UniProtKB/TrEMBL annotation:
<feature type="domain" description="ABC transporter">
    <location>
        <begin position="2"/>
        <end position="227"/>
    </location>
</feature>
<dbReference type="GO" id="GO:0016887">
    <property type="term" value="F:ATP hydrolysis activity"/>
</dbReference>
<keyword id="KW-0067">ATP-binding</keyword>
<dbReference type="InterPro" id="IPR003439">
    <property type="entry name" value="ABC_transporter-like_ATP-bd"/>
</dbReference>
<keyword id="KW-0813">Transport</keyword>
<protein>
    <submittedName>
        <fullName>ATP-binding cassette domain-containing protein</fullName>
    </submittedName>
</protein>
<comment type="similarity">
    <text>Belongs to the ABC transporter superfamily.</text>
</comment>
<dbReference type="GO" id="GO:0005524">
    <property type="term" value="F:ATP binding"/>
</dbReference>
<dbReference type="InterPro" id="IPR003593">
    <property type="entry name" value="AAA+_ATPase"/>
</dbReference>
<keyword id="KW-0547">Nucleotide-binding</keyword>
<dbReference type="Pfam" id="PF00005">
    <property type="entry name" value="ABC_tran"/>
</dbReference>
<dbReference type="InterPro" id="IPR027417">
    <property type="entry name" value="P-loop_NTPase"/>
</dbReference>
Length: 235
């Protein structure tokens, strides 16, 4: 489970995340939606221990990320880029991540199979397409068999086949009882992927609920999204 409460994050004295609170539950895919600059990445960076909050808490499995003894075994994260050194092979990258987190080497082949990179595992990361890089990042996130997955814009730049694949993988992980939180601005895809939605704008949560609750009364999630943003705009 992910629990964020009264979270505020400032950059240069300006609050880019203000009093944000929501919960992402096990067995469900939660979509974290908002326009560019809304504060999605800033929230996720605090959640993943990369930044400190100015106020509030962000907990994974009941504790702050930095308190986790084996973070990768509790939470797998996919941030921008594959995170791999470009001159390494995909397999070498995953072996290094496994070794530095006390994860058995046998998991490397397992996750390479899960993400469909087994045939490309001996190729250098610099030869990978964007979709392959994303698969490698997801493989690294899955290495520790974590109960929680956090993905920042995992669908960005992917072709329809890649989007379909990520969607299936995330739905399967949720069906196994894991907690999945993904940020995105690809609304049509989030509508078919997420069970629950949290919509953020200008650093504040503007609505949250099940996908059907948030879209109720609108033709699409996109319509619901813009209606919400219009409501927030000062007249
Ligand atoms: N390190 C930083 N220093 C100064 N300002 C920052 C920093 N990181 C983020 N910001 C600002 O905080 C605001 C929120 O940015 P953030 O990246 O969290 O938004 P986002 O919702 O993830 O947007 P995007 O979809 O464009 O990535 C933006 O105005 C951004 O310019």
């Amino acid at each position: 489970m992910i629990e964020i409460a009264h979270l505020t994050k400032k950059h240069g004295g300006r609050a880019v995340v203000r009093d944000v609170g929501f919960t992402a539950l096990p067995g469900r895919v939660t979509g974290f939606l908002g326009p560019n600059g809304a504060g999605k990445s800033s929230t996720l960076r605090v959640l993943l221990g990369l930044d400190s909050p100015d106020a509030g808490t962000a907990l994974v499995a009941g504790v702050r990320y930095r308190e986790l003894r084996h973070p990768l075994r509790t939470v797998g994260a996919v941030l921008e880029g594959s995170g791999a050194h470009r001159s390494r092979t995909g397999r070498a990258h995953l072996s290094w991540v496994a070794r530095s987190n006390g994860i058995p080497r046998s998991r490397v082949d397992e996750v390479l199979d899960v993400v469909g990179l087994a045939d490309a595992a001996r190729k250098r990361v610099r030869t990978y397409s964007l979709g392959m890089g994303r698969r490698l990042a997801i493989a690294a996130a899955l290495l520790g068999d974590p109960a929680v997955l956090v993905l920042d814009e995992p669908l960005n730049g992917l072709d329809p086949e890649g989007i379909r694949w990520v969607r299936g993988l995330l739905r399967d992980r949720a069906a196994e009882g894991r907690t999945v939180l993904l940020s995105s601005h690809v609304m049509a895809e989030v509508a078919v992927t997420a069970d629950d939605l949290v919509v953020i704008n200008a650093g504040q949560v503007v609505t949250r609920g099940t996908t059907s609750e948030v879209t109720a009364g609108h033709a699409s999630l996109e319509d619901a999204f813009f209606a919400l943003l219009d409501r927030e705009r000062p007249c």
